[in-house]
Design the sequence.
């Protein structure tokens, strides 16, 4: 249950601290006093989005805190799953900073907005006027049936498995499209692969062949040059080495009486040795160099093959051709691999679908059983609310395909008058009837103890007289199982409450602010009497207020 609420710097509220009691609480106040502000603050604690427009003072942060007693709700698993410290009294805090950044905390531990929202749904049910319209939505109707049927845990398991099922089906569709494309491309890819495979390419082959072809194309010139060099160096009578040898001989004659020449003599001797070695290597190269027309033609043809393949595939290296060959090989193998993956995935989907249909069968069985219970239990409550001739049917229709919540489609059929035709609730129900029907539905949920705190925001709009009294009685009965807070403008509802708060505005020369206070018994009599008389207090209004409170 909601035990305490603290609001700082939110809309027209500067600072507010409220302690709530068990049972039935009414919140009253004039139109425009700020009752919706209180509801908005609670909505932020339930995970609703916010912006800096809610800041009363734009230079300070807004802080909204609430303490919930959860000792009877069996929520320890939620705390364990979210790595939070458990306590029977849970402090929830929401902060909105001037920078528009928001922060959320559960027991002083930072949490995400989604975590706050998940927790909020477990401790607080805010029924706004907009939510009454959700009764016309098939998803809401199904959730209502499932709540009463106790399908929550099974639906979680089903939903997780259904998510896997949908992802697997999407993957299967993609794989089939990929396989179809690969099969269309297979013949062409096979031709390209065979062409590259037949070429038997080696990674460094191109550079080596280009060098060899260049050598073959110039073999004659090279051998001619080698011959001329060797002729000049060593094969003529006046060859370079012979002349140097003669110079060496001449120097040897003066070494004995001119010692400074000895170093030059030795250097010349070393040079002659080096030159002989150089010319010897040239001679060896000349002897080993040969020309082959057949080889030249082979190398040229081989390079033409490489150049043509590079041009065809728009690349410039053999390494890139080899990479393309590898990719083509992968594509060809992928056809076989895709077949295997598709077969495996089809089997997995079939098994998952079988499990889903079994679970959907259990869900459906529970829903049908619960729908009959809903029909029988709603009618007395609707009669109490002034619709004694109402008829209501929860129609469940099996679907061929699996849905996100099973294999049932739901329609809530309604007729408020005797002898009328049952039709879709959205087509035959009035606004006042819709509010009463939603209250009746909520009263059923409360019996399951699934709603620890429920807040009604003017659910009694559009009703008066005996119907208002009936709605007040139902809320009072609901409060025996759960904490009920009703924002109301009806004195009949306020009179049935165990606790009553008044929301009001105060103004000074600078600003206006909204505040809220708990009323004493005497103050409650005056407030309810004011709601009855709408002008000055009268003795009869006060007496009626006392009767309503009794």
Sequence:
């Amino acid at each position: 249950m909601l035990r305490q609420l603290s609001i700082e710097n939110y809309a027209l509220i500067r600072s507010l601290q409220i302690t709530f009691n068990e049972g039935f609480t009414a919140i009253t106040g004039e139109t425009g006093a700020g009752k919706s502000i209180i509801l908005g603050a609670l909505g932020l604690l339930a995970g609703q989005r916010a912006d800096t427009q809610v800041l009363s003072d734009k230079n300070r942060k807004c802080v909204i805190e609430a303490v919930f007693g959860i000792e009877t709700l069996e929520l320890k698993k939620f705390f364990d799953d979210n790595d939070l410290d458990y306590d029977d009294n849970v402090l929830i805090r929401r902060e909105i900073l001037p920078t528009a950044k928001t922060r959320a905390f559960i027991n002083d531990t930072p949490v995400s907005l989604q975590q706050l929202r998940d927790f909020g749904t477990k401790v607080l049910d805010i029924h706004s006027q907009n939510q009454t319209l959700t009764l016309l939505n098939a998803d809401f109707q199904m959730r209502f049936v499932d709540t009463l049927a106790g399908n929550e845990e099974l639906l979680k398991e089903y939903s997780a498995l259904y998510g896997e099922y949908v992802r697997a089906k999407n993957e299967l569709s993609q794989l089939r499209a990929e396989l179809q494309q690969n099969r269309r491309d297979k013949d062409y890819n096979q031709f390209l692969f065979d062409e590259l495979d037949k070429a038997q390419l080696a990674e460094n082959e191109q550079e080596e062949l280009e060098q060899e072809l260049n050598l073959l194309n110039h073999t004659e010139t090279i051998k001619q040059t080698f011959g001329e060099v060797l002729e000049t160096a060593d094969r003529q009578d006046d060859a370079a080495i012979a002349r140097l040898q003669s110079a060496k001989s001449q120097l040897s004659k003066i070494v004995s009486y001119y010692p400074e020449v000895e170093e030059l003599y030795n250097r010349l001797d070393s040079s002659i040795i080096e030159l002989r070695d150089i010319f010897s290597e040239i001679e060896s190269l000349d002897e080993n160099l040969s020309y082959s027309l057949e080889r030249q033609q082979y190398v040229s043809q081989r390079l033409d093959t490489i150049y043509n393949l590079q041009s065809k595939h728009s690349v410039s290296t053999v390494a890139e051709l080899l990479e393309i060959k590898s990719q083509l090989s992968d594509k060809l193998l992928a056809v076989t691999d895709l077949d295997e993956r598709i077969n495996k995935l089809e089997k997995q989907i079939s098994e998952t679908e079988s499990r889903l249909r079994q679970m959907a069968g259990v869900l459906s069985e529970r829903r049908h059983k619960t729908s009959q219970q809903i029909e029988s239990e709603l009618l007395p409550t609707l009669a109490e609310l002034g619709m004694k001739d109402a008829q209501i049917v929860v129609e469940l229709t099996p679907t061929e395909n699996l849905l996100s919540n099973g294999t049932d489609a739901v329609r809530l059929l309604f007729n408020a008058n005797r002898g009328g035709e049952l039709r879709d609730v959205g087509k035959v129900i009035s606004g006042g009837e819709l509010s009463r029907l939603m209250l009746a539905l909520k009263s059923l949920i409360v019996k399951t103890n699934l709603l620890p705190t429920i807040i009604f925001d003017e659910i009694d709009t559009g009703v008066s007289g005996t119907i208002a009294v009936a709605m007040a009685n139902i809320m009072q009965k609901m409060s025996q199982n759960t904490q009920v807070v009703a924002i109301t403008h009806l004195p009949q509802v306020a009179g049935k409450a165990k606790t009553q708060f008044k929301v009001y505005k105060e103004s000074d020369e600078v600003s206006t602010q909204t505040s809220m206070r708990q009323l004493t018994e005497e103050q409650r009599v005056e407030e309810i009497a004011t709601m009855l008389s709408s002008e000055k207090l009268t003795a009869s209004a006060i007496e009626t207020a006392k009767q309503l409170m009794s």
